[in-house]
Amino acid sequence: MACAMPYPIAPGRFAMQAALVQEMPAARSLEAPEPDHASPACRDQLGRPLRDLRLSVIDQCNFRCTYCMPKERFGRDYPFLSPEQRLSDAELLRIVRAFVGLGVEKVRLTGGEPLLRKGIESLVERIAAMRTLDGRQVEVAMTTNGSLLARKARSLRDAGLGRVTVSLDSLDDQIFRAMNDVDFPVGRVLEGIDAAIAAGLAPVKVNCVVERGTNDAQVLPLVEHFRGSDVTLRFIEYMDVEGPSGWSQSRVVPSDEIRGMVERAHALLPVTRRDGETASNYLLADGSLKLGFISSVSHPFCGDCTRARVSVDGRLYLCLFATSSVDLRQHLGAARPDEAVADAVRQAWQARGDRYSELRADRLASGKRQYPTVRMSLVGG
Ligand code: SAM
Ligand code: SF4
Ligand code: SF4
């Protein structure tokens, strides 16, 4: 395992963290390495274990972020999945149970906007009640746009949600409203983040997708805003989820450039990434903020990709950019044994060789102007 020695530190003690990082050789891990409980049988063609499940619980959203669900494509007549096409809670739970039986320990609920799903707390509660192969509580996390979090943070925490990641692309209200494209005010998302911190959904992560010419001037204001809080702030490179037709490399701000913007104002200390973690992590040298950079375009991390994705219609996607999926719904009938889902997942994972981001440059260089990708709001990012 590539992870360094355990270095257990109470979350949120930033000053102490910085002091410890300075005593360590650069880039030691701040957190204990993850034990590898993945079933030995469940490794893919590149040796990657199946560790995490991202479960999309709804494909609809109350935002129309321009980089994810542009209004031109996701208009009033867009054929979202009907209630009959969406899996019930009982069906989703059967799928989650199969993944847990294969060694998965973390389940992230996503969407669309997961907080739009009715009874989401009950789903959280029933997943959190599951046990991992070695008898621990399954970790339940959520990625949300934060619009409904102020009123839901406490009940989600009570239901057993462990952690939350909130997407926030700008502190500037005008830019934020333009990016969500439904005129939603940034203040309500900030209230949601505060409510999540108050409810103990720690560590709260804030994700910002940086798009050149749109919100790149927001990098430093976001850093300043969250300094001294218990939030981990992560900057994400803008990805070609719609294929090259709706995306261009010139609008991607590479992580190195974003980090440079921060470094002109603050010294940074590197922190080693844990196995399977997507972000390169840093700490402001004064210990006031933990930062992550997710470089899926400039420095792809497919070699560490241990995530499976399941959409709300029961399809298993082995990559965020997959063009095909495995239908798990057919294994959910009352007459089917519970092992049928697990067998289908195991088989698919063992055959997996996906590494789209590592091949992106070649594809673009080959002049391929358009290629299909699954929609982000269906598989949940
Ligand atoms: N609606 C929830 C939210 O926005 O947090 C969850 C679903 S959303 C698809 C999950 C994540 O995907 C968000 O953090 C969002 O910023 C990110 N995302 C969507 N489109 C993206 C793109 N083109 N490039 C990079 N990240 C993207
Ligand atoms: Fe909705 Fe999230 Fe996509 Fe924005 S990024 S449109 S909030 S699903
Ligand atoms: Fe994983 Fe596919 Fe993203 Fe590579 S491109 S990190 S395989 S989801």
From TrEMBL:
Any one GO MF annotation of this record: 4 iron, 4 sulfur cluster binding
Classification via PANTHER family: MOLYBDENUM COFACTOR BIOSYNTHESIS PROTEIN 1, MOLYBDOPTERIN COFACTOR SYNTHESIS PROTEIN A
Enzyme Commission designation: 4.1.99.22
Lineage: Bacteria, Pseudomonadati, Pseudomonadota, Betaproteobacteria, Burkholderiales
Positions bound to S-adenosyl-L-methionine: 67, 112, 167, 239
Gene3D superfamilies hit by this protein: Aldolase class I (3.20.20.70)
Positions contributing to GTP binding: 54, 108, 143, 205, 307-309
Protein name as annotated: GTP 3',8-cyclase
Tagged with keyword Signal: no
One biological process term in Gene Ontology: Mo-molybdopterin cofactor biosynthetic process
Cofactor (UniProt): [4Fe-4S] cluster
InterPro entries: Aldolase_TIM, Elp3/MiaA/NifB-like_rSAM, MoaA, MoaA-like, MoaA_NifB_PqqE_Fe-S-bd_CS, MoaA_twitch, MoCo_biosynth_MoaA/MoaC, rSAM
Family recorded in the similarity comment: Belongs to the radical SAM superfamily. MoaA family.
Function: Catalyzes the cyclization of GTP to (8S)-3',8-cyclo-7,8-dihydroguanosine 5'-triphosphate.
Chain ranges of the Radical SAM core domain: 45-278
Subunit (UniProt): Monomer and homodimer.
Keywords noted in UniProt: 4Fe-4S, GTP-binding, Iron, Iron-sulfur, Lyase, Metal-binding, Molybdenum cofactor biosynthesis, Nucleotide-binding, S-adenosyl-L-methionine
UniProt superkingdom: Bacteria
Cofactor note: Binds 2 [4Fe-4S] clusters. Binds 1 [4Fe-4S] cluster coordinated with 3 cysteines and an exchangeable S-adenosyl-L-methionine and 1 [4Fe-4S] cluster coordinated with 3 cysteines and the GTP-derived substrate.
Enzyme class: lyase
Binding site for [4Fe-4S] cluster 2: 302, 305, 319
Catalysed conversion reaction: GTP + AH2 + S-adenosyl-L-methionine = (8S)-3',8-cyclo-7,8-dihydroguanosine 5'-triphosphate + 5'-deoxyadenosine + L-methionine + A + H(+)
Binding site for [4Fe-4S] cluster 1: 61, 65, 68
Encoding gene, per UniProt annotation: moaA
Pfam families (alphabetical): Mob_synth_C, Radical_SAM
